[in-house]
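Hi V.,

Quick status before I head out on leave. The structure for the redesign project is tokenized and pasted below; the design run finished overnight.
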């Protein structure tokens, strides 16, 4: 099933929002664990990148982004 361009953009933006929320939670947990601020930012960025990669790969595998 072919999705319209606007729907695909909306799905990617929603995935990005979910990845940012996961990254914020990761940074907060790192900070509560006693990490310094630069380490928290690094953990958050890595988490956002990994989550976004996974979500886009899942959407691509399901045929949503074709």
């Amino acid at each position: 099933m072919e999705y319209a361009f606007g729907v695909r953009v909306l799905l990617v933006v929603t995935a990005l929002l979910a990845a940012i929320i996961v990254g914020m939670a990761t940074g907060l947990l790192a900070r509560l664990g006693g990490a310094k601020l630069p380490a928290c930012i690094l953990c958050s960025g890595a988490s956002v990148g990994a989550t976004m990669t996974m979500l886009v790969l899942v959407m691509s595998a399901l045929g949503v982004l074709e």
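Above is the designed sequence. Residues 32-57 form one domain.

G. will cover questions while I'm gone.

Best,
W.
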